[in-house]
Amino acid sequence: MSCGRNWRDNELSLARVCEKYPDAAPFVIIKIDVQRRGVVYTEDALRQVDPAIHMTNVRSDFYDKEDITPVSLLMRDGTSIFCEGILAESVREPYVVDVVDGKIVLVDDGLPIEEVSYWEKPDYYDKKTSGGVPMWHVVSARPQRITIHPNQFCDYWKTPGNGCKFCVMAANFKAGNKPSLLDVKDIIETVSEAVKEPGRNVCVFLTGGTLMGGAEFLDDEVDLYVDILSGISELFGGKRFPSQLVSTVFSRNQLARIYESTGLSTYTADIEVLNKELFNWICPGKAKTVGYDAWKERLYRAVDIFGPGNVNTGIVAGVELAAPNGFKTEDEALESMLSEAEEISSHGVGVVSCVWRVLKGTVFFRQTAPSLEYYVRLARGLDAIRRKYNINVDMDNYRRCGNHPDTDMGRI
Amino acid sequence: MILTLSTDSRTALADPDTVKVLAGIDANGFPHVAFKDSLRIRPDGYLEYDEIIESSDMNKVFVNAVWFGRTVSVLLLTGARRSFLIKGSVYRAIIAGWEFKERYLTARKRLGDVDLSTSWVIEPTFEREDTLEKRRIEEEERHPLLRHVDRLLHTRNTENHAE
Fold it and tell me: Closest-CA residue in chain B for A145?
């Protein structure tokens, strides 16, 4: 997909998309557009940042930063706008975060669009583990979620050409000075501290890069998550607790081991793109080691273990239009994506979309994300499919990830 | 500049004996009504209530209202049987941060082992005392044509007067 300098003339504006889809929440549409295009901050907006209150530092598997800019934004309806990561150069200008009439607002093309606020940091953020490691190095936060990235690298990137083409994990890891595997004791200690904060967290979330080794393929990754989740489960008396694991897709036996030996309540294995040929091109490592059809089949088996509504799969919405092998038109892509999402959902597996943020350091860094209208149509379609198959959004709603416009739509 | 509520409304909102009702419409146009004891006025003049149940009808009404600019209504009935109607727009949802933590702790202190979904902030845009006697007098002054004529008959008035 290409996008010229006159991109505003070539696609519907925010206002026109809101008019054309009056049933779609303007808040969700704004969120999509901001995530797609990114933000820059004015001096006035940065003066509103209080590092004692707001979250400015973050260390995760795909984004590390310590400057004064806010990590991300919150809208008036409680929805997060996810701004992490450094967007690649784009012909589409980013939104400007400015101060107008004393309020922090998003501005586009000189017009104030919507009021926002900055994510606040949790109480544990400035503390250190008993070993002296800053806790924010170990566990990152979203407004209502504890986020753990135990493996900050990915085995697929160890073989040239095997990494997912939209993924920034390898570039981020190589640019930083941090261990690939975090210490499990540090993680448990930090989570123990984080969960004490009243009213802060509704989910403990784990994700990280693939670990292919072990007696069975991926057993090392399973072992890592079992170690961490077992320790966290003890904090809850061994009972199941609101939690989500986003991992490589595990076998039925591996999932049963995790489910039975920990308090994990929901499971996600991101298929990334809903098309076999594009999966093979965009996620070559996953394609070679697991394969598209087996990925789906393993997700279906996960429902047998975790139950309907407790398993989903994420897609990086928009990569299906990447050149040269992606769909040539948005209509064609949409029809294919929704058809496959319906097939997967009919097995009780939810499909959630993330807005593709074309990031620096990825193989796809020269690509352009689709139009705003495409994302809105896709989000509406996924929301409709989820309602049709009665798939609960609780495991990945607006309070948890905050990066899924389609599950935001499930709020009403 | 938001509408400043009258002293009487403010007093009613602060009175624990006042019955507080919220009303609004959902995405399908269905009305929903609920008692909300936690409804209160904030120092900045906005109203606020604590929604305990994330999946409640009223929470969805409020999400729908903040998304699409719908109005919500507040009805107050005091212990002295005075009532007040306040209409407003939903300004924002407090779901995280220090403000949320304060409200979460307060709600749990007040109600025991409960969760808190959201504290919703409402900007008042309209206010009226709805006590029947007051409204009845206002109605007859403003709309003298809107009454049954038998009430105005000379003999009837005389009879009533004689009684």
Answer: B96
CA atoms of A267 and A31, how far apart (whole Å) = 25
**Between chains, do B67 and A26 touch, taking CB under 8 Å as contact?**
yes
In A, which residues are within 8 Å of B27 by CB distance? 412
C-beta of residue A344 within 8 angstroms of C-beta of residue A299: yes
Give the whole-angstrom CA distance, residue A368 versus residue A294. Answer: 30
Distance CA A20, CA A29 (A): 11
Res A232 pLDDT > 60: yes
Domain boundaries in chain A? 27-118, 123-411
Q: At what angle do helices B57-68 and A26-37 cross, to 10 degrees?
A: 60
B16 touching chain A per CB within 8 A: no
Do A78 and B118 count as a contact with CB atoms less than 8 A apart?
yes
Between A25, A198, A412, which is nearest B60 by CB? A412
Closest CA to A348 of A305, A400, A286, A405: A305
For residue A373, give the 3-state DSSP assignment. Answer: helix
Could B95 and A199 be called an inter-chain contact, meaning their C-beta atoms sit closer than 8 Å? no
Q: Which residue reads 């967290």 in tokens?
A: A201
ipTM over 0.85: yes
Q: In what order do the strands lie in the sheet with A39-41?
A: A39-41, A95-100, A103-108, A111-118, A73-75, A80-81
CATH of domain A123-411: 3.20.20.70
- Comparing CB atoms, the residue among A143, A198, A411 nearest residue B96 is A143
In whole angstroms, give the CA distance from residue A155 to residue A60: 17
Is A76–B66 a contact, with Cβ atoms under 8 angstroms apart? yes
- DSSP letters along B89-149, please? EEEEEE-SHHHHHHHHHHHHHHHSS----EEEEEEEEEEEE--HHHHHHHHHHH-TTSS-G
Q: Which two three-digit tokens encode residue B10?
A: 């403010």
What average pLDDT does range A386-398 have in this prediction?
A: 97
* Amino acid (1-letter code) at residue A199: G
Q: What is the pTM of this model?
A: 0.95
Contact state of B63 with A74 under an 8 Å Cβ cutoff = no
The pLDDT > 70 percentage for chain B reads: 95
Which chain B residues are closer than 8 Å to A78 by Cβ? Answer: 92-96, 118
pLDDT at A1: 47
Out of A76, A120, A412, name the one closest to residue B93 (CB): A76
CA separation for the pair A317, A166 (Å, rounded): 11
Contacts of B94 in chain A (CB under 8 A): 78
Q: How confident is the model at residue A173 (pLDDT cuts 50, 70, 90)?
A: very high
